[in-house]
Input
Amino acid sequence: MSATPRYSIIGAGNGGRAMAAHLALMGFSVMLYNRTPEHVAALKARGGLDLESYEGGPRGFAELTAVTSDMQLAVDHADVLMVVVPSSAHADVARTMAPHLRNGQIIVLHPGRTCGAIEVQKILCDSSCPADVTIAEAGTFIYASRLEGPAQARIFRIKEALPLAALPATRTTHVLDVLRSAYPQFIDGINVLHTGLDNMGAVFHPALTLLNAGRIESTGGDFEFYIDGVTPSVARVLEVIDRERVTVASSLGIRAQTAQEWLKMAYDATGTDLNEAIHNQPGYYGIKAPATLNHRYLFEDIPMSLVPIAALGQRYGVSTAGIDAIIRLACIIHRTDYWRRGRTLEKLGIAQLSVSELTRYVNEGVNAYERS
Output
């Protein structure tokens, strides 16, 4: 690995563009990959993109090393591959990367949602990838960001502290050391069960979207999602989902952060309850609701966040009635079976593992798949 790491950003949505621009403005060599060439044609023509930001945040024209739809080119360029796509695409990205990876590279999922690193490791194993790479995942995405145009992005806020863990956890320190020059905000997330069960997207996104379904469809999302969309009653539902998530984590011996604790850590936002803490987070102001219910807050966060949390609850004896209700509502609205599409323990290769075996796998890297 070079002294100054070279980055390839996999995914050119609002998050990927914000990350690519910020890294480039910090002076790193950055390649941006998107599988659909026409989606990045304007970026390729300009050789970069304009970044706007909050007061005091990064801004300016960010020149990129290259913009490509060739995965081999993107992998060849990188010491660190930052995967910034919906977690429902992690498996496909892993399969596409697998033939091109080389020893020593780092793959970071932004974020992993729940069990993302475990899924990617399973895919690389199933693809007979010979390279010794390190897979890591962030607990959530470091930016609150949106697209502003075909070659423009905006950052609303950068989180102040964000847990990250590698699989196995013995490699986390190495990943943090490599990323520190760009992202000192990353801190040791203990292991990927901790980062996966401290998944705040699972708490905030699906239920908030479904409980505002009528308003989203009637206004096209023309309201402030976290400000207008979170009322005391909605916040109480979020608190139930949060409590179930924390209890599932406890069954695995993990002390998960509550949503309020996370808001304090990431944004220094506090309140007497979750409703008040959300409204005291300045970065949430100005963020509009999804324009449609065909949105990653449902088609990503339900199968890749809530399904594995509920599956872990079922496996280790925890009731997740609130989470189950949200999954069921999403299945009805989208006319699909998210249990079948989601990250079940069988798909992840960990269905037969005891708590101690699963813990050993994420901490030490003992091969779980020999048991499944």
Observations:
- The CA atoms of residues 162 and 186 lie 5 Å apart.
- DSSP finds 18 helices and twelve strands in the chain.
